Sequence to fold (261 residues):
Amino acid sequence: MMENEPIIIRTENLKKVYGSGEAQVIALAGINLTIRQGELVAIMGPSGSGKSTLLNILACLDRPSEGSYYLDGIDVSQYQRRDLALIRGRKIGMVFQSYNLLPRLTALENVLLPIFYRREQRLPAEAARQHALAALESVGLSDRAHHYPNQLSGGQQQRVAIARALVNDPALILADEPTGNLDSHSSQEILDLLQRLHAQGRTIVLVTHDPEVAAHTERILLIRDGHLISDQSNGRTRSMPPSNSLSSSPASTTPEVHHDH
Ligand code: ADP
Ligand code: MG
Fold:
């Protein structure tokens, strides 16, 4: 990836702590990360290592306990939920392992939802419909627009979810185990689709357990116990020195993660 592409994601010493006292869990222990426009990045790591926590913060679904998150240059780490929701609607498309489609809505209606949730520049109904149909067409599902989720295969449901993620033309697509519930054929379809979106210049960050899925990306971040322990690009692995514990300080003592090609 080009060094001169704009930075879409930058985190500084990002921490997330759940609970308190004996029940306290340090889900993220100080993550420093830079992702540039147009990158296709995989986040890997054992179960419970903090992958979803990180992705949810990057998606503005949750806030860090400490540290900063610059999304498109704006520090959103102190934003209140309402403002996070606004910025999410404008800049982020999210895809989940279990698709998260609304079962009582058709494929088309599911894809229309983010357009209606967008408070500013609301489209007239017919324009919104055409826009949603175009998104469904881009994932090869024009002929399933009026089907309900339970009338679609898992792979088709995930393609609807991707169309929904795309419909507001987000700067960033985030996917948490997008192929986790799919057979290998459907997984490959979803991967092909994500790669096509990447080729169109989209920025995509996906969490996966599957090394084969990760192999289709150009950069692999490895997380363990809330620490970013490696950042691998083009087959070369760069090990990260241990990041700081929660009690110790600043981001500046942890090296920036970046590319070196
Ligand atoms: P991963 O996605 O890598 O499996 P998660 O980010 O879901 O990991 O979880 C990281 C850690 O934070 C785990 O120990 C998990 O149990 C804990 N955790 C996640 N969400 C919550 C929550 N809402 N409340 C308390 N602990 C949580
Ligand atoms: Mg997870």
